[in-house]
Amino acid sequence: MNSHTHELHYSPTCAVMAEVHIIGQIIGASGFPQHSLFCKWGVHTGGAWKLLSGVVEGQTQVDHPQNDDMAFWSHPIDMHFATKGLQGWPKLHLQVWHQDTFGRNELYGYSFLHIPSTPGTHSLLSPTWRPLGTWQEQICQMFVGGGPQLKSSSLIYGGSDRYRLQTVAMGQVHLQLTVILRNFERYGVECS
Amino acid sequence: MASGPSVFLLNVSGQIESAEFPEFDDLYCKYSFVYGHDWAPTSGVEEGISQITSKSQGGKQALVWNFPIEITFKSTNPFGWPQIVISVYGPDAFGNDVVRGYGAVHLPFTPGRHARTIPMFVPESSSRLQRFTSWFMGRRPEFTDPKVVAQGEGREVTRVRSQGCVTVSFNVVTKDLKKLGYNTGSGDFPNATTMSQP
Fold first, then answer.
1. pLDDT tens string A49-103
2. Predicted complex ipTM exceeds 0.90
3. What per-residue confidence (pLDDT) applies to A15?
4. What residue of A is the nearest CA neighbor of B108?
């Protein structure tokens, strides 16, 4: 019946590479002390990964929600990667910021998550944390606001330098991401 | 040469069921679709405008539209997967129609029946002076094109207030997505963690 099962049409730009689509939304955040929030996000991949289309970083709108238990961003994400290997599977890193009534921004939390490797639609919750600082800094933060921030965002998604940090839990980010895979079966890679 | 399919089809039917806006009444909605360059609608209706609905008398205070959606897209590439953009309007104290919410969600990716609750938001004035003039003139800020809520770029300058939500149900049929080598998984939420609703 299927004489053409092994002669599928592949797009000419990436005839032999496996492809990953990541499509969905950063829905919003809950569990933070204040809910006038926005989010900076980015996707980090290994060297074998090539972005074919889409953007891999951005910033959401600032939501001042009517009812104060969740901020909604409904921020769309749409990325198309080609890859030669599984190393460096995409990681999404997030920074949640609070904007006060004067328009000042302060860091509320960092977080990262691996993009799920199972194809399909995933509802995800990503818990966040922020650096605590010394006790002098904490007292200063009580009165002035602000607080310590990381100098380099690689600490968010890397594990090698984390042991220097003391952190405290903050709220969580809600996401819905759909992963579509192509040509993985061709190489015997089992993702589901 | 045995020629396999070169495009896949995404057929979506469904309805904009209802909305929850505790503060507002007599609302109607508009819908449209935003999709990437590789996508094209092959049949169906690309945009629509619903009737004006009032809240039910009972305790639930539901705003029911029961408004049909039917559309078929074709594409060669999932990038730019279509999103439905919904905007809700209703009369203010002077009887002028003002926007009560914008929202967008991607059409579901897997065959079957899916329900989506879309959180809605309205843009806010960026300065106190604008806030005062908009209050004084009785005109609140709107997006000139509601389709911007389906775009990710340039949103860092936008201030919004989220209020209310809209419930939409979809029936999805796909054709030749697998034959083109795409694996979208199956089932709606294979490893779902519960999403807390507002």
1. 999 999 999 999 999 998 878 999 999 999 999 999 999 999 999 999 999 888 8
2. no
3. 55
4. A121
Percent share of chain A, pLDDT over 90: 61
Contact assessment for residue A23 and residue A53, using Cβ atoms and an 8 Å cutoff = no
Looking at the structure of chain B, the number of domains it has is 1
For the entire predicted model, the pTM comes to 0.87
Cβ-based contacts of A121 with chain B (< 8 Å)? 108-110, 185, 188-190
Residue at A10 is within a domain: no
Contact A45, A20 (CB under 8 A): no
Contacts of A191 in chain B (CB under 8 A): 183
Which of residues 63 through 122 in chain B touch A, CB cutoff 8 A? 76-81, 83, 103-106, 108-110, 118-119, 121
Count chain A–chain B contacts defined by CB atoms under 8 A.
169
| CA torsion angle A13 A19 A20 A21 (round to 10) | 40
Which CATH number goes with the domain that contains B63?
Answer: 2.60.40.150
- Give me the number of domains chain A comprises: 1
Distance between CA atoms of residues A158 and A151, nearest Å: 13
